[in-house]
Amino acid sequence: MRPDDWYCTQDLTGFLSHAGGFLRSRPDLHTVALTVTETLRRSGLRAYSDEAPVFGVLELDGQVRAAYFRTPPFRLNVTPLTPEEAESLAAHLVALGHSVPGVIAARETAEAFTAAWRRQSGARATVIQRQRLYRLGNLTAPQPLPPGRPRVAGKEDREQLVRWYGEFVEAVGDHVARDAAAWADSRISYGGVTFWESEDGTPLAMAGVTPLVAGQVRVAPVYTPAHLRGRGYAGAATAQVSRAVLASGVREVLLFTDLANRTSNSLYQRIGYRAVADFAAYDFRGSRTF
Predict the structure, then answer these.
(1) CATH class of 3-131+279-285
(2) What is the per-residue pLDDT for 290?
(3) pLDDT value of residue 172
(4) Which of 91, 119, 138, 222 is the most buried (most CB within 10 A)?
(5) Where are the domains of the chain?
(6) Order of strands across the sheet with 124-136?
(7) Where is the N-acetyltransferase domain (predicted)?
(8) What predicted TM-score, i.e. pTM, was given to this entire model?
(9) What does the pLDDT read at residue 138?
């Protein structure tokens, strides 16, 4: 396999025309690529960063085998690769003179690409987070539910959403965050965040959902302020948005968890989420300048 079996483009329309069918063939494993490219399509190429994103496709014998995207300055996101494909991708990016600050992918792919990038660029790698992708099976609401009720966030909640999204990004160290105001406006536009609120209407936790793409919706983000955690609010909000997605006819409901957070992993399994695959995120340091 050769590095020039890959090609790179900044043309989102062309990328989706070429690789869209491949991405939709596994909407679970490709959920991030699907939702990010849909956001870029709807909101413009600067939705995540002032720099234009880049996209890449591996094609062999007329068939798309893999794809990647990156919204600078954030990490490279890659669909599952064989070790040989990972090596060819690293060589392809080096040949193009691309710097890569990190990678996030299914665990085996992330490990293979990290090793290949080290050989190609001399970079040192640090694992930043290990994640697990879950799919909803039979939803079971947590019992007992905490006091309160669900409510879909509206325009009047914009300031609250902006503040909580900023706190969420800071808490998880998210490297692919959108501008908080743009994120809030986007979610409000399609009812994409549900609060669990107290009887007097005070928001206690939130659970969001991504737009429907390729028959899948991902629950994200889920956030409870630190002083309100441990009371079941996030679980109640997550169960509510999951139920609402199912009621809309969607059957592929996904979410990611941080494997270091045993509480959230246990919670999501109790309400019906089942493991699909493990992912890993690495940061790179010390790459040679190309």
Answers:
(1) alpha beta
(2) 47
(3) 82
(4) 222
(5) 3-131+279-285, 138-271
(6) 6-9, 54-60, 63-70, 76-78, 102-106, 273-285, 124-136, 252-258, 216-223, 203-209, 193-197, 149-152
(7) 148-290
(8) 0.94
(9) 96
